[in-house]
TrEMBL record:
<feature type="compositionally biased region" description="Basic and acidic residues">
    <location>
        <begin position="61"/>
        <end position="70"/>
    </location>
</feature>
<feature type="compositionally biased region" description="Polar residues">
    <location>
        <begin position="29"/>
        <end position="43"/>
    </location>
</feature>
<protein>
    <recommendedName>
        <fullName>Ketopantoate reductase N-terminal domain-containing protein</fullName>
    </recommendedName>
</protein>
<feature type="region of interest" description="Disordered">
    <location>
        <begin position="29"/>
        <end position="78"/>
    </location>
</feature>
Length: 341
């Protein structure tokens, strides 16, 4: 398949390296040099893979990075590989046809020329990586000629220095979990082959962010301090339970102690310094985190209004958010103060 990743960021570059093993794959960047030179010799992004391929003989494309301090614990396993992925400009993408375009920017945030180039390319499938409530609908209205799927990255990936991106793919996990039109997801999975995407129902796709994003929000409110998050787990745990209720309709009991144990397990089993990664990485996506909290609050309010109108059709005032989802509301307010200051 011919696949384009929009944006030479953390996910675009890492996923392109993984897709590029089997498919014609490029990353398209607003900052790639336009003109024939860029067309003939595309920019490269160095990637550090924490999983060594079966055949690990060094090649022109593999090299041991000097700055292997991060991912910290991976360095000690001695399993590192650097790959290069081609980065091209939009003119290059526009001159060819593509089967799949993966957006790593929220559709509504795309620069106008970028959105116009994507429309002009008319790929049969566009996948968005944002899971903010309403972003899929925005993509559907922006790109009516393409099938819109949602891809949830199963990687941890980060831009480091210069053109370097480092990522960790949990063992046995795909690159993306995909949801959307069942036939389109099935067809895409077949054409991509195993290991790159798995099909997941939409409700299941939105549950994991509902569980973990409130902790990300608390981390941001606490200036990215993992230690401060670890000692303030009560509010995000309650907000997480409210968000899960908003997306699934099910109330799942959660405890700050249980959350602490999960964080312990992450620190133990994920071969990167989770605290450092999370503090740095999520600071770049605070606006999106806030929109996700607001999205769940909105879903909660709609759910309550529906329930109320069924129970009492004459009453049209639904309970306030402070009653429905107090922790989610409080966390969103704290993050809003930070994002807008
Ligand atoms: N990183 C992870 O581990 C991870 C994990 C789970 C989910 N996600 C989700 O995946 C998505 C991408 O995350 P990321 O970490 O890869 O972000 P990122 O590193 O910021 O990359 C996004 C890229 O989009 C391009 N871009 C930014 N603003 C744009 C605009 N206005 N118009 C057009 N292009 C624009 C930029 O590339 P150019 O300047 O090169 O065009 C930028 O590098 C986010 O929704 C994030 O929540 C990420």
């Amino acid at each position: 398949m011919k696949v384009v990743f929009q944006g030479a960021g953390a996910i675009g570059a890492a996923a392109a390296a993984l897709f590029g093993r089997r498919h014609e794959t490029v990353v398209v960047s607003r900052s790639a040099n336009p003109g024939s030179e860029a067309l003939n010799s595309p920019d490269t992004v160095r990637l550090q893979d924490t999983v060594r391929p079966q055949s690990s003989a060094p090649t022109r494309d593999t090299a041991r990075p000097r700055d292997a301090a991060y991912p910290r614990r991976v360095g000690s396993t001695g399993r590192e590989t650097v790959r290069r992925v081609p980065v091209v400009d939009w003119a290059t993408v526009s001159s060819s046809s593509w089967d799949l375009v993966v957006l790593t920017t929220r559709p509504g945030d795309l620069d106008e020329p970028v959105a116009a180039s994507i429309s002009g390319a008319r790929p049969s499938i566009i996948a968005i990586t944002s899971q903010v409530d309403g972003d899929r609908d925005i993509a559907v209205s922006m790109f009516p000629e393409s099938e819109i799927l949602v891809f949830s990255p199963a990687l941890l990936s980060e831009r480091t220095t210069g053109r370097n991106v480092r990522y960790w793919q949990p063992p046995a996990m795909p690159v993306f979990m995909a949801s959307g039109c069942r036939d389109a997801v099935r067809r895409l999975r077949r054409e991509l082959g195993g290991g790159l995407i798995v099909a997941v129902p939409a409700a299941l796709l939105s549950a994991p962010p509902a569980v973990f994003i409130p902790y990300v929000a608390e981390l941001s409110v606490r200036e990215g301090s993992w230690t401060a998050l670890r000692t303030h787990l009560r509010r995000p745990t309650q907000a997480s339970a409210e968000a899960v209720h908003a997306v699934t309709g099910v109330r799942i009991p959660m405890s700050a102690r249980g959350a602490g144990l999960v964080l312990d397990a992450l620190e133990l089993f994920v071969p990167i310094d989770v605290g450092e990664y999370a503090g740095r990485h999520f600071a770049r996506h605070e606006g999106q985190t806030l929109d996700m909290l607001n999205g769940w609050a909105g879903q909660m309010a709609r759910r309550a209004a529906r329930r109320d109108s069924q129970r009492n059709p004459k009453r049209n005032a639904a309970p306030a958010l402070a009653e429905l989802a107090p922790a989610l509301g409080e966390l969103a307010q704290a993050l809003r103060l930070r994002v807008t200051r």
